[in-house]
Amino acid sequence: MDKIPVEFTLNGQKKQIMVFPNDLLINILRDELYLTGTKYGCGIGECGACTVFINDEPVLSCLTLAASVNGKEITTIEGLAKGNELHPMQIAFLKNAAVQCGFCTPGMILTAIALLKENPNPTEEEIKEYMRGNICRCTGYVQIIKAIKACASEQNKVKR
Amino acid sequence: MVPFKYISPKTKVEVLKILRQENSKASIVAGCSNILPYIKDKLISGKLLVDISEIEELKYIKIIDNHLSIGPVTTISDLMNSEIIRKEYNILFHAAEEFADPIVRNTATIGGNLADASPAADTAPPLLVLNAVLEIENLDGKRDVDLKDFFIGPRKNVLHNDEMITGIKIKNQSINKNGCFIKLGLRQAMAISLASIAMVLETGNGKITDVRIAMGSIASKPLRLINVEEFLLNKKIDDALIGESMKKVSETVNPISDVRASEDYRRYVSGILFKRAFQQLTN
């Protein structure tokens, strides 16, 4: 197999790399670019641990071919904080004890950010519905839902 | 992972040329949500993956001549965000809501869901009751195939190696507005359907004037229950009718036993799904 060139923006930085046609985005992110915040959970698109943003939309990096991201903008969990300033969703997760082992957390945070972008004031049902592709084995979800609600109300406070 | 080749053409014509040239070696991909798991499971190997996800001319939702026309690369999220579909074809909206999860929906496409031809495909029962017609093309031209004639069996459809789905057409009819989709799974989310039903109907003077029923995961392909529809036509709506229809549904479906459910259970629950859908639409 010959490698093919791929150019994309990753967390605001332009990248140019060579990939095999059968390289998955998650493996390129973790193994070639050393961004291990994105986690390999199930590898078949059922757990959400591998969630990243491509052009601001949450997608599963375990089901994304690295060759297909040419010309796109990718954001991983590492791209959320601005220096030492955490993203409001990250702060909410920490303040509301929504992190135990932390494995599901990057995916959860990214999906939650996408949720609030689409629906700035979701009900608990709407949160559960939107987050249903992100699975957690530790928390029982209660604190995660609480964190998302807290972040939403913080953001709505700021808007007023 | 097993090696394969990858190409991402920019136009539909380029795709058709590749399909003609590569024949069975080429495999169209878009969201990759089915094909990558197949490749990982070694069910598919040695392919040239032809990525059509960025071809704009294949991504559309529009009204042409009193028909809703949907491009095959339209994602399930696109379907949910479409006002036309939410208002005029809400059975498709409800099926999209049950489909996988919001993240998968961002890349999974309606064309891919149909071409994969799983008996459990969630977009199939609603499209069957909407009498969807598929536009299929190769380098030589176009042909229309009724969706009910498209599926042959599990993961088998009528597409030739050099053909691709280029459009999904639904005629605008008043019956489309009164529909429901119910999906039964082993869990509330991210479930492959154990059985599913889509139904649209119209009534007048307490009788059924028009009805279409389709079910998923209860046969080797998504199924229109034509004989049940014929039975229901012009009948008065009462409990006896529901009871008789439930029996007919259970007799018509042809399920198998698998990891999700037994044949007996599927046969039984098909009748229940009919009842739930029917009552939802007639109350």
What can you see in these coordinates?
The complex is a heterodimer of chains A (160) and B (283). Chain A has 160 residues and is α+β, with helices and mostly antiparallel strands. Helices cover 34% and strands 16% of the residues of chain A. Chain A has 5 helices and 5 strands, in the order ββαβββαααα. Chain A has a 5-stranded mixed β-sheet, with helices on one face. In chain A, a hairpin with a 2-residue loop joins β3 and β4. Chain A starts with a strand and ends with a helix. Chain B has 283 residues and is of the alpha+beta class. Helices cover 34% and strands 25% of the residues of chain B. In chain B, 46% of the residues are buried. Chain B folds into 3 domains: 5-51, Uridine Diphospho-n-acetylenolpyruvylglucosamine Reductase, domain 2 (2-Layer Sandwich), CATH 3.30.43.10; 56-171, Uridine Diphospho-n-acetylenolpyruvylglucosamine Reductase, domain 3; 178-282, CO dehydrogenase flavoprotein, C-terminal domain (Enolase-like, domain 1, 2-Layer Sandwich). The model of chain B has no long low-confidence stretch (mean pLDDT 96). Chain B has helices at 12-22, 35-40, 76-81, 83-88, 90-98, 102-105, 110-116, 124-129, 226-232, 239-252, 263-282, and strands at 5-7, 26-29, 48-51, 61-64, 67-70, 133-138, 141-146, 151-153, 156-157, 164-171, 179-184, 195-204, 207-216, 223-224. The termini of chain B are far apart. The radius of gyration of chain B is 19 Å and the shape is globular. In chain B, α9 packs antiparallel against α10 (239-252) and α10 packs antiparallel against α11 (263-282). Chain B is built from 11 helices and 14 strands. In chain B, the strands form 4 sheets. Chain B has a 5-stranded antiparallel β-sheet. In chain B, strands 11-12-13-14 form a 4-stranded antiparallel β-sheet. In chain B, strands 1-3-2 form a 3-stranded parallel β-sheet, covered by helices on one side. The interface between A and B is medium-sized, with 30 and 29 residues.
